[in-house]
Predict the 3D structure of the following.
Amino acid sequence: MASDAAVIEMTGLGKSFGAIRAVDALSFAVHPGEIFGLVGPDGAGKTTTMRMLAGVLSPDSGKAQVAGFDIAHDPEGAKHHLSYMPQRFGLYEDLTVNENIAFYGDLFSVPRRERETRARELLTAAGLSEFRTRMAGKLSGGMKQKLGLVCALIHRPKVILLDEPTNGVDPVSRRDFWAILYSLIDGGVGILISTSYLDEAERCHRVGLLHKGKLLFCDRPETLKKQFPGAIFAVRTLDPTRVSETLKSAPGVNRVVLEGDGVHIIADRAERHSELQNILSAAGVQVEAFAQVDPTIEDLFVFAVTDSSGQESPGAEASQPK
């Protein structure tokens, strides 16, 4: 495979379960050395997409290739070149860390010497070296996920499919998990990771925002954030509820969101800055700070799937995937 050829490529991929369209005409590609994030809430279609790419489910429409193999016509061919880590990875809790690694090494016919070297590298990166003789069932949730990733990587796959691997994982283990992923990209591995944590989108090279099976946006995080229409103002105040009540019906304000001891104001344009400050001042609302802030991927996603009243919109036009 050429170094610049996509390791995952799909066009119009779709899957239905009865009357429910779980995945609706997905089209995007993942390249070697790239971490692509498929981001969206529960029910967006992330797991169904992963299962189709892994050869567990057959698509109803469209086509996709993984490591150069058509997943509909030759799913077994693709399986030799990929690792699929589902939400509940199949560790054997009554086996030790070493024994789980040995099992997956045998499953993928990894020579013993190569397996030992590879396991040592991965366990060190995962911070699990001192737990090699511990039963997998005795590991913490984060450690289990990291062991699952070690097992998934033991045969040096070209493609890695990770379905919400950091769900419920502690912050330290999440950091370690991502450090391992970053260490893989220099070797040309293509990684597709799904997550409902919108902050993790910032860690990916490119992001696809998925909602009800449809791709709303697909691009680099920094490019996506520039597509946010309007402006966001952060207000620090001792009375966030009063700020919210005062500004929620103000001209140009699309939405007001309470953020801890502050308020985020989503307005139609940056020029509303002085106007909104004057409204608060006229109402006698005390404000400690009022400043425009950069939008996040979460801001863009929420804007795309809700209308100005804060209710979920019936649909959103998808941008052309890059």
User: Anything to note?
Assistant: The longest helix spans residues 112-126. The CA atoms of residues 80 and 157 lie 8 Å apart. Residues 307-322 have pLDDT under 50 and may be disordered.
